[in-house]
Structures are given as C-alpha cells and as structure tokens.
C-alpha cells in the first residue's frame, strides 16, 4: 500500500528523537497518575455495571418463575400470560433506537441510573395488585373451612345448609363480584413489565460502550467477561428466590395461616409471588445509585488516545476529520444518517447475514417459548410443585447453560476455529441439542386418573364429552356444580373434582385434615356395593412418574448444555461476516429482529397452543372462564415439545444454508485463517475491512436476553 509524502512527513515528525529533560519525566509521571485514575474510575464503573446486570437478570428470571403463580392469582389463560411476558420486549423496543442513537452523546452513567429507577418502578408496579385486589379465594367445601357448621358434601336437600351460612356466602360472593367487575388487575402486571423493558434498555448498549471507550485495550475483554459472568449468576438467584416465595402462601402477613386449608402441593396454591418483586425492586434501586455519582467521561488511556478504532464514537469520524474529534457531539443528525440506506442495503445484501438472522429468529422462537413455559410443563407433566420446579431450574439448568457458553468460547480459542468451523460447531450444537430433545417424548407421565375427565366413574378411559361425563348414577342424587374445582383423593387412587361429585355423604375433621365418608362414587370402581372414603387434595401421579422426572432432568441438563455450546460460535459467525464499520448497525438490526419476531410473539402462540390441551377450566366468581385447572398430559407433551422441535428443525435448515453459502464462498487459503485473525470466508473489498480489532471481540458470549434463556 502506498503512503503519501504528507503522511511520511507527519510520521517522521511525530517520531523525532528529542533531548531528554525534566519535562519528559513530568510527562511520564502525569501519565502514570492519569493511568491510575483511569483504572480506578473504570473499575468502579465495572463493579456498578456488574451489579446492574445482576439486578436485571434476577428480576427477569424471577418473572419466568412466577408465570404459573400469576396465572392462578388472576385467573387468566396461558395465552394472556404470554402477552404479559412479551410486554417486556415491547417496552424495550419503544426506546431502543433513541437510546442507542442519542445515548452516546449524553451522560451515559446517569442515563443508566435513570433506567434502573424506571426498572425498579416497573418491578414495584407488578407487585401492587396484591395490595388492592383483596385476599386470594380458592374453591373449598364449606365444612373444610368452618368445622362448627356440619354440612353434607352431597347436598340432596339445600335446607341442610343453615340459612345464615348461605346468606353470608352469597354476600361475600356478591362483594367479590362487584370488585372484580370494576377492574382487571393483571393489566398492572403488564404495565409494570413494560416499564421494566423501558428501564432495561440503556444498560447493555451504553454500559458496554462506556467500558469499551475508557478501558485499557487489553483489559476490555476481561472486564466485559466479568460483567457477563455476573449476569449468569442473576437468573440462578432469581429462580431460587422464586422457589422460596412459592412455598409461602400468597396472603402471608394478611391472614391467619392456620386457616389456610390447602398446601403448596395443591393445584390451587398460589405462593407469595409479589414478595420477590419487592425484593427485586429494592435491588434495582440500590444498583442505580452509584451511576448518579460517576463522571460523564473518564480520562482515555494513553495506549488508546491515538487509536483509530478505540471506541464506538470513532466509527462516525473520518480520517480527514479526526482532528475535530472534540466536536463530535456537534455532528448533525443528517450527516450521521445519510449513509443509513446504503448501509442497510449492504447489510441485507449479505446472504450469510440474512440466512443466519432467519435461523436465529426461528431458533429463538423455539427457545423462548420452551423456557417461558418450562415451569408449567414440569408442574403439569410430572406433578411437581412450583417451589421444587423453580429450585431445579435455578440450580441445575442455568449453570449448565453458563458452562455451555463458556465451553463454546473455550473450544473456539483452543482449536483456533475459523468462520467455517464456527458455522459447523453452531450447526452441530443445534442438531444434537434438538435430537436429545426428541427423546423427551418418551419421558412423560400418563394422565392423572380424574373421574369424569380422564377416566369414567366405572374405571374405563374417557372418550365422551367431558362436561357431561362429570355426572354419573353414583352422584345423580347430589346437587353438584360442574364448575367447581375442589379435588379430593379417593382411597382407590382416583381423583374426584369435588366431594359432591364423589357422592360423599359425610365428613369429619376440618381444614387440611378433612376426611370424607360414604362416598358412593369412590366405591364404584372396584366394589360397587361398598362405599369408601376420600381425603382433601388430588392424588399423586403414578409410581413411574418420579423416575421419569429424574430422566427428564438429566436429558434437560444435557440438552441445555449442548444448545448453549453453539451460542458463542454462532455469535462469532455473525460478527465475522460483516464489515467492521457496519458491525454496530448489524448487531442492532439483529437484536431488534429477535425481540420483535421472537421475544414478543413466541410466548403468546405457545400459550395459545398449551391452552388447547386443557381438560378442566376454572370459573371466575362473576362468571367467565378462569385459569386451567387440569391439562391433558399426553397432549401437553406433544404440543409443547412438538412445537419446540418443529421450530428447531426449521432453524437447522437455515443453518445448513449458511454453511453451504460459506463453503461456496470460501477457498482453501481462506479456511486456514482462524477467527482470531482475518475473516477469510466472508470476504470484503479490502484487507483493511477484514482486520478485526480486539475491542470488537469482547461480546462473544452475549446475545439478546441470554440471561433468561435455558
């Protein structure tokens, strides 16, 4: 490459040997002090940003852990819960363009601090309905609530019930209806999650670029690696917090816990979901405080003052205007935006980028839907409690994901894998991950035996209309409602929707210790002439189910690890196949596409599909359909796993297309280049464009919402 005489003159003039005097020692001394202050400032910012990453990851994962609790508390279907979950992405999208574009021109630490306050406000808002919507009411037979009033479960004659008890019950019901008719409190949860998305927006783009701008070049990768490591710890604590709160009753501190007649194993149980949001909100407030005291700019390290690619800001300044770097904030929007359309055209004209973008969108649809409803799947398929489910996910699955991400980066570094190799590793990871997921079809539990829903009252498998099958000869003399859900377990191992539908004539005890006697339907299955007893609560799943759950955990952990191994190579593939000056723009488009086309719709249509497998819907006090009480286990397994696998398979086809294009465009000479050097397989116009600066290798383990993807 030729160098002009002007450049030669400037080069030699800058490198002229000068006599050594005291001023040089002063300069050296000031430089060391500047370096020390710079390192001190960036380390304080690093610690603060790590804490913020922990806070946002904790609150995001805690939301995932409370999906089933919110569904039961507000009596809403899974599809609506999916809309609530997707509102975070909507909030993020509302301002992501403004923050990414104008954020670098303003006081970045204070913008992050303001984002933390907004995020905490949204987290507090999610918990607010608990304090305004009254106490949680679950369906229970009156005698199990008040032992002083003797009422037969099978109300053959309504005169058996004292009038005062009926009037009191009706008055409470009417009062509840008036309150419910005037509000839909789940909207506050949606708005709170929307605010969380808005507040979280500036943290990643402004925080990472701040470190990139002011950290010593060789330390930048280490610093951001520390931030991402802390971000992995957040979801672990989020799910463990969810496990703890799920064991506590929803109205703890407001009611006498001795009067609660259900346990955390009951399908109607709702834990103290709101408590975790208050804790997460306080953590978010504390995380934002340091940013209000951090400076807008830190002194640049000497090693990066003359670097042409040391920061995001320098990308907008041409060689001719480098002397005017100090006037960066005065650049007009029109001048910065004039290359927008040509850049967009160049980006979408890159077949590798487009194919990888399509593969990522479809794969994230698969993963986001799977992770969002994984707690529900474990609870319904294997009969586990919400507390145990969250504990297992937080302590086993998330560490497997973290280890997989680390392993992917280690493999890339150890074997110096090139871009073509990265595409192969990413494809292999997805292929074997979804192949392992296929084996989960054989690791499900059979439907619980529920009289009138999954089995008939005579012990045969149910094939007729469910609602009509709830009534039989054994309970024909009882005045029962098909809308009730107060399950009891007969001594024959069959669950009955209510004591009334089981034909129980008497009861003894109160609360959780209630025992029902003379249940005419319980004795029908084995000895029709003999009536039997039943206890409060549904029966446990079959004997094989605990063993299947262990198999599921093992395969699930291996699958999480296998899929995560391909995350880093795939992200490196994305970075290496675009020109350096388009890198930030390409990542912005990538993030935007993932959020719009995967983060928002996936929880919704997964929820709609899961709702189709419901066997028994709950009923709201004022009429209308509530949350699902019982799912068809087999149908749920096929829908949940099937939808995940179909999407995953489609994404694999796009990944194969990426590999095919790379092979077609590569040459034997290019394939010898590693990802630590030049982009051999994604050629650009000049060698200068192929050069990869070390400050762009720092986010190799990040992709959108990585912290909560299992």
Automatic annotation (TrEMBL):
<comment type="similarity">
    <text>Belongs to the organo anion transporter (TC 2.A.60) family.</text>
</comment>
<feature type="transmembrane region" description="Helical">
    <location>
        <begin position="80"/>
        <end position="104"/>
    </location>
</feature>
<feature type="transmembrane region" description="Helical">
    <location>
        <begin position="639"/>
        <end position="662"/>
    </location>
</feature>
<keyword id="KW-0325">Glycoprotein</keyword>
<dbReference type="InterPro" id="IPR002350">
    <property type="entry name" value="Kazal_dom"/>
</dbReference>
<keyword id="KW-1003">Cell membrane</keyword>
<dbReference type="GO" id="GO:0015125">
    <property type="term" value="F:bile acid transmembrane transporter activity"/>
</dbReference>
<keyword id="KW-0445">Lipid transport</keyword>
<dbReference type="GO" id="GO:0043252">
    <property type="term" value="P:sodium-independent organic anion transport"/>
</dbReference>
<feature type="transmembrane region" description="Helical">
    <location>
        <begin position="270"/>
        <end position="294"/>
    </location>
</feature>
<feature type="region of interest" description="Disordered">
    <location>
        <begin position="300"/>
        <end position="323"/>
    </location>
</feature>
<feature type="transmembrane region" description="Helical">
    <location>
        <begin position="587"/>
        <end position="610"/>
    </location>
</feature>
<feature type="transmembrane region" description="Helical">
    <location>
        <begin position="353"/>
        <end position="371"/>
    </location>
</feature>
<keyword id="KW-0813">Transport</keyword>
<dbReference type="GO" id="GO:0006811">
    <property type="term" value="P:monoatomic ion transport"/>
</dbReference>
<keyword id="KW-1133">Transmembrane helix</keyword>
<keyword id="KW-1015">Disulfide bond</keyword>
<dbReference type="GO" id="GO:0016323">
    <property type="term" value="C:basolateral plasma membrane"/>
</dbReference>
<feature type="transmembrane region" description="Helical">
    <location>
        <begin position="548"/>
        <end position="575"/>
    </location>
</feature>
<feature type="transmembrane region" description="Helical">
    <location>
        <begin position="40"/>
        <end position="59"/>
    </location>
</feature>
<feature type="transmembrane region" description="Helical">
    <location>
        <begin position="220"/>
        <end position="250"/>
    </location>
</feature>
<keyword id="KW-0472">Membrane</keyword>
<dbReference type="InterPro" id="IPR036259">
    <property type="entry name" value="MFS_trans_sf"/>
</dbReference>
<keyword id="KW-0406">Ion transport</keyword>
<feature type="domain" description="Kazal-like">
    <location>
        <begin position="468"/>
        <end position="523"/>
    </location>
</feature>
<feature type="transmembrane region" description="Helical">
    <location>
        <begin position="423"/>
        <end position="443"/>
    </location>
</feature>
<dbReference type="InterPro" id="IPR004156">
    <property type="entry name" value="OATP"/>
</dbReference>
<dbReference type="InterPro" id="IPR036058">
    <property type="entry name" value="Kazal_dom_sf"/>
</dbReference>
<dbReference type="Pfam" id="PF03137">
    <property type="entry name" value="OATP"/>
</dbReference>
<dbReference type="InterPro" id="IPR020846">
    <property type="entry name" value="MFS_dom"/>
</dbReference>
<protein>
    <recommendedName>
        <fullName>Solute carrier organic anion transporter family member</fullName>
    </recommendedName>
</protein>
<feature type="transmembrane region" description="Helical">
    <location>
        <begin position="391"/>
        <end position="411"/>
    </location>
</feature>
<dbReference type="GO" id="GO:0015347">
    <property type="term" value="F:sodium-independent organic anion transmembrane transporter activity"/>
</dbReference>
<feature type="transmembrane region" description="Helical">
    <location>
        <begin position="110"/>
        <end position="132"/>
    </location>
</feature>
<feature type="domain" description="Major facilitator superfamily (MFS) profile">
    <location>
        <begin position="45"/>
        <end position="666"/>
    </location>
</feature>
<dbReference type="Pfam" id="PF07648">
    <property type="entry name" value="Kazal_2"/>
</dbReference>
<keyword id="KW-0812">Transmembrane</keyword>
């Amino acid at each position: 490459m030729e160098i002009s005489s002007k450049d030669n003159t400037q080069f030699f003039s800058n490198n002229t040997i000068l006599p050594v005097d005291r001023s040089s020692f002063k300069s050296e001394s000031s430089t060391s002090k500047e370096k020390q202050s710079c390192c001190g400032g960036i380390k304080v910012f690093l610690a603060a940003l790590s804490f913020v990453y922990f806070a946002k990851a904790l609150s995001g994962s805690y939301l995932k852990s409370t999906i089933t609790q919110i569904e039961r508390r507000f009596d809403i279907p899974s599809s609506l819960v999916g809309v609530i979950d997707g509102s975070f992405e909507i909030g993020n999208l509302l301002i992501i363009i403004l923050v990414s574009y104008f954020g670098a021109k303003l006081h970045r630490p204070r913008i992050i601090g303001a984002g933390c306050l907004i995020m905490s406000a949204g987290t507090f808002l999610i918990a607010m309905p608990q304090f305004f919507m009254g106490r949680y009411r679950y369906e229970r037979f009156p005698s199990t609530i008040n032992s002083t009033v003797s009422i037969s479960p099978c109300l053959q004659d309504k005169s058996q019930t004292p009038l005062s008890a009926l009037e009191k019950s009706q008055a409470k019901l009417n009062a509840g209806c008036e309150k419910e008719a005037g509000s839909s409190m789940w909207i506050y949860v949606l708005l709170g999650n929307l605010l969380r998305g808005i507040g979280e927006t500036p943290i990643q783009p402004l925080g990472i670029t701040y470190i990139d701008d002011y950290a010593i070049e060789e330390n930048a990768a280490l610093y951001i690696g520390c931030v991402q490591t802390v971000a992995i710890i957040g979801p672990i604590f989020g799910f463990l917090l969810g496990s703890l709160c799920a064991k506590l009753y929803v109205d703890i501190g407001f009611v006498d816990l001795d009067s609660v007649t259900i346990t955390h194993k009951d399908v109607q149980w709702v834990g103290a979901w709101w408590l975790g949001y208050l804790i997460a909100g306080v953590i978010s407030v504390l995380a934002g405080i340091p940013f209000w005291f951090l400076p807008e700019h830190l002194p640049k390290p000497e090693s990066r003052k003359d670097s042409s690619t040391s920061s995001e800001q320098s990308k907008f300044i041409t060689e001719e205007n480098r002397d005017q770097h100090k006037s960066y904030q005065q650049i007009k929007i029109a001048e910065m935006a004039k290359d927008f359309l040509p850049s967009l055209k160049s980006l979408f004209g890159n077949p590798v980028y487009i194919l990888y973008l399509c593969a990522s969108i479809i794969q994230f649809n698969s993963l986001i839907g799977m992770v969002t409803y994984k707690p529900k799947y474990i609870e319904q398929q294997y009969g586990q409690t919400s507390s145990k489910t969250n504990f297992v996910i937080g302590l086993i699955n998330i560490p497997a994901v973290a280890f997989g991400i680390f392993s992917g980066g280690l493999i890339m570094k150890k074997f110096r894998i090139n871009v073509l190799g990265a595409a192969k590793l990413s494809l292999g990871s997805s292929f074997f991950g979804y192949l392992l997921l296929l084996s989960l079809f054989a690791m499900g539990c059979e439907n619980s035996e529920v009289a009138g829903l999954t089995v008939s009252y005579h012990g045969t498998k149910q094939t007729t209309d469910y609602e009509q099958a709830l009534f039989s000869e054994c309970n024909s003399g009882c005045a029962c409602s098909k809308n009730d859900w107060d399950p009891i377990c007969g001594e024959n191992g069959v669950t009955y929707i209510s004591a009334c539908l089981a034909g129980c004539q008497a009861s003894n005890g109160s609360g959780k210790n209630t025992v029902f006697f003379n249940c005419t339907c319980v004795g029908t299955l084995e000895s029709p002439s003999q009536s039997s007893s039943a206890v409060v609560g549904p029966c446990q799943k079959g004997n094989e189910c605990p063993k299947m759950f262990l198999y599921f955990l093992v395969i699930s952990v291996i699958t999480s690890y296998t899929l995560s191994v391909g995350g880093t190579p795939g992200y490196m593939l994305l970075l290496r196949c675009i020109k350096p000056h388009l890198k930030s723009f390409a990542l912005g488009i990538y993030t935007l596409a993932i959020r719009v086309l995967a983060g928002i719709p996936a929880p919704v249509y997964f929820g709609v599909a899961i709702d189709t497998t419901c066997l028994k819907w709950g009923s709201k006090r004022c009429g209308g359909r509530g949350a699902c009480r019982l799912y068809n286990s087999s149908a749920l397994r096929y829908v949940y796993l099937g939808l995940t696998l179909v999407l995953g398979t489609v994404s694999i086809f796009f990944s194969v297309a990426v590999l095919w294009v790379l092979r077609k465009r590569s040459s034997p000479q290019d394939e010898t280049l590693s990802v630590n050097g030049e982009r051999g397989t994604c050629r650009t116009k000049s060698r200068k464009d192929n050069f990869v600066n070390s400050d762009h290798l720092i986010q190799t383990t990040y992709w959108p919402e990585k912290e909560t993807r299992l």
